[in-house]
Amino acid sequence: MSQQEVAAAKGSAEAALTGAPAGAGQQPEQAQQAAHADHARWGRDMCNDFDIDDPRFNEHFFEMLDHMVRHCPVVRSNVGSGYWMVTRQADVRRVGQDWQTFSSAKGYQPNRPEGLPYLYPEESDPPVHTAWRRALNPHMSPRAVAPYAETIRNDVNTLIDRFIDRGECEFVSDFGAKLPGWAFFKNVLGVPIDDLDMLVDSVERGTFDPPPERPGHFARIFEYLGNYLARRRDEPPRGDMVDTIAAGVEYPDGEMAPWDHRVSVLVDLTFGGIATTTYVMAGAMQHLATNHGDRDYLVDNPDMIPRAIEEFVRVFPPVVALGRTCTRDVEFEGKEFKEGEMVLLGYSAASRDPRVVEDPQTIDITRESVLHSAFGVGPHRCIGSNLARLELTVTLEEWLKRIPDFGMKPGTKPITETGILRSMKDLYLVF
Amino acid sequence: MKVKIDETRCSGHGRCYVLAPEVYQLDDNGYNAEAGSTIEIEPGLEKKAMVGVKNCPEAAIIPVED
Question: In angstroms, rounded to a whole number, what is the distance separating the alpha carbons of residues A192 and A309?
Fold first, then answer.
């Protein structure tokens, strides 16, 4: 088939599935029909009246992303002060790379609560952002994190030892919520072993407890990390990332980064990588538990695990979307963004963009070409991406060796939670 | 065949190295070691070079017309 025929066939197939007209460039009546189809299906026009916290987005997450990336290059939300969201990979890349127009300095959360201190370096722009990344990158490169594999492997097995004889587990609380925390706190931060349980528990509860109780758990971690950084500053250097953060970086104005920025960096790194990796792990395990062909394929071909991991990262995106603030008025794909308005980078939609991923709705763990935005795009690319991949790879390697035969517990269905981040609260497995 | 590695776009995803290590290497920060340069692709490695082009989330690897 020619490229045009393939595109036309895909378009018709999509139209049949979605009940909405096919084609990228929509006429006004077609756009109205597509909006009407939204209302009929979900009771809300998710393209022009979006709410990232709507329970229906959580429930119909993948369907809605697929719809938006095909039919709504620029999504509009009228919630609170309102925000935009770009969905196509090319546009997410344009916005993410153009930090001068789309700044991180006013934060990544839409409708950000007043008075919240900014996280560094995530909520800053070059050149301040660059000064921090230059200092931190060497500690999180593939070469830097590779030696952690041994500790991570031991930890994976320690956690599995705790439940393997039970013949069942709740994967998130028994494993997924713990391993990334252990990996990060032990290897990267070098915290005392005695403090590990409290920290990991606080992250878990800060992520999964009823929402009003979460801030308290996170506050405990903030406080701990501030004290820890001060202690480490006064101890002999170990040559690790904590030393680098405690020492601070020179800002472009010639001043050293203030102490509270340094603590913020430690907090930023901590929260960046724990609950996020947990979701990808849970998603991967859910898929393998319910697709035994893929599970057995990886049991028999463990060298294909890294490739599968990249696909799991793509299809189980823990970061749904993060925001930027317009530093000027921008005309974008026919919409007018005003200075000061927030534009979300729809990472999760972009990872399902049929323009850059072949058959993006299918989880294909053998695909070589996995173009996704799960680790972000632009200068704020997830600094922990290499560590995350390592944790995921080692987890699957060891799990599939020790528990090659597992499934989902009958009668159970995982509960997910979605906002700017997505998580899976539980996953009952039997083996 | 030549490709340019745009240092203003390379943000260290590392996909080029994972998928085409015969063509692309990373520096100690995990960024493309030739960021900012144009590299000559060895004959026979053109397909591998294009895998890197297609899979860079930043579109930082750009074929250059001779």
Answer: 30
Q: How confident is the model at residue A12 (pLDDT cuts 50, 70, 90)?
A: very low
Q: Work out the number of other CB atoms within 10 angstroms of the CB of residue A340.
A: 12
The answer as to whether A9 is a domain residue is no
When divided into structural domains, chain A yields a total of 1
Q: How does the average pLDDT of chain A come out, rounded?
A: 91
Dump pLDDT digits (tens) for A220-249: 998 999 999 999 999 999 999 999 999 999
The enclosing domain of A350 has a CATH number of 1.10.630.10
Task: Give the residue numbers spanning the domain of A44.
Answer: 27-107+117-430
Residues of B in contact with A377 (CB under 8 A): 11, 57-58
ipTM of the complex: 0.96
Q: Write down the pTM of the prediction.
A: 0.91
Three-state secondary structure call for residue A362: coil
Q: Are the beta carbons of A348 and A144 closer than 8 angstroms?
A: no
Optimal mutation site among A100, A137, A303, interface B, most CBs of chain B within 10 A: A137
Within 13 A of A363's CA, how many CA atoms are on the CB side? 21
Question: Is residue A336's pLDDT more than 90?
Answer: yes
Tell me which of A26 and A334 has the higher pLDDT. A334
**What CATH number is attached to the domain comprising B34?**
3.30.70.20
**Facing B58 at nearest CB: one of A137, A368, A377:** A377
Residues of A in contact with B31 (CB under 8 A): 137
Contacts B57 to A, Cβ<8 Å: 89, 93, 371-373, 375, 377
* Count of residues in chain A: 431
> Which pLDDT score, from 0 to 100, does residue A28 have?
64
Residue B40: give the domain boundaries: 2-64
Q: What would the pLDDT profile of A367-403 be if each residue is shown by its tens digit?
A: 999 999 999 999 999 999 999 999 999 999 999 999 9
Contact A298, A305 (CB under 8 A): yes
What type of residue is A14? E
Tens of pLDDT, residues A269-280: 998 889 999 999
- Number of domains present in the structure of chain B: 1
Is A125 part of any domain? Answer: yes
- Judged by CB atoms closer than 8 Å, whether chains meet at B30 and A140 is answered as yes
Mapping DSSP onto H, E and C, the string for chain B reads CEEEECCCCCCCCCHHHHHCCCCCCECCCCCECCCCCEEECCCCCHHHHHHHHHHCCCCCEEEECC
- A245 domain residue, yes or no: yes
